[in-house]
C-alpha cells in the first residue's frame, strides 16, 4: 500500500484513494460505540457500549468486510456520506476533523508513523468497552464515555 506523503494535508477527502481513505482511521474504536441522543436537546451522548462486532482488545471490527450484513444499522463512512454522518463521529476522528478543515491530532498514526500511537496516547477504547450483547438498551446510559 503506497500512500502519498502527507496526503491528508493536500488531497481533498473526495479525491483520496481507497487506501488513503482507510489509512485515515486512527483505530480508536469510538465510531463503534453506541450513541444516545437526547430528544429534547439533540445532544449526542457517547457510551462505552460497543457494537457486538467490536473487538475490545484490538479496537477493530471483528468482521469489517461483512459488517453491514451482520449489523444493518452500521454506518459506512464514505466521502459521500460524511456530510450526514460527521455529527455522529467523535471530535477526534480524522475524517470529521479533515471534513471540518482541522488538522490531524499530533498522536495520529499518520503523523507519528507509529501504528500504536492512538493507544499509547490514551485516545482509544482498548479495554474500556462493554458489548451491547451484555446489556439491555435501557442500561446504556449507565455507561457514558468519559472525556
Describe the overall structure:
The chain has 147 residues and is of the alpha+beta class. The protein has one domain. It is 19% helix and 12% strand. It is built from six helices and five strands; from the N terminus they run αββββαααααβ. The strands form two sheets. It has a three-stranded mixed beta sheet with strand order 1-2-5, with no helix packed on it. A two-stranded antiparallel ribbon has the order 3-4. A hairpin with a 4-residue loop joins strand 3 and strand 4. The longest helix is centred in the first third of the chain and has 6 residues. The mean pLDDT is 94.
Features:
147 residues, 6 helices, 19% helix, two-stranded antiparallel sheet, single chain, alpha+beta, three-stranded mixed sheet
Helices and strands, with pairings:
Layout: H1 18-23, E1 33-37, E2 44-50, E3 54-55, E4 60-61, H2 67-70, H3 82-85, H4 94-99, H5 109-112, H6 117-120, E5 130-131
Parallel strand pairs: 2-5
Antiparallel strand pairs: 1-2, 3-4
Summed up:
The chain has 147 residues and is an alpha+beta fold. Helices cover 19% and strands 12% of the residues. The protein has helices spanning 18-23, 67-70, 82-85, 94-99, 109-112, 117-120, and strands at 33-37, 44-50, 54-55, 60-61, 130-131.
Count of β-strands: 5
Question: Roughly how many Å apart are the termini?
Answer: 34 Å
**What pattern of helices and strands is seen along the backbone?**
HEEEEHHHHHE
Instruction: Let me know the largest β-sheet.
Output: 3 strands, mixed
Q: Strand arrangement, largest sheet?
A: 1-2-5
Structural class assignment: alpha+beta
What proportion of the residues form beta strands (DSSP E)? 5-15%
Runs with pLDDT <50, length 5+?
none
Broad shape: globular
**Which bin fits the share of residues in helices?**
10-25%
Domain module tally: 1
* Overall pLDDT metric: 94
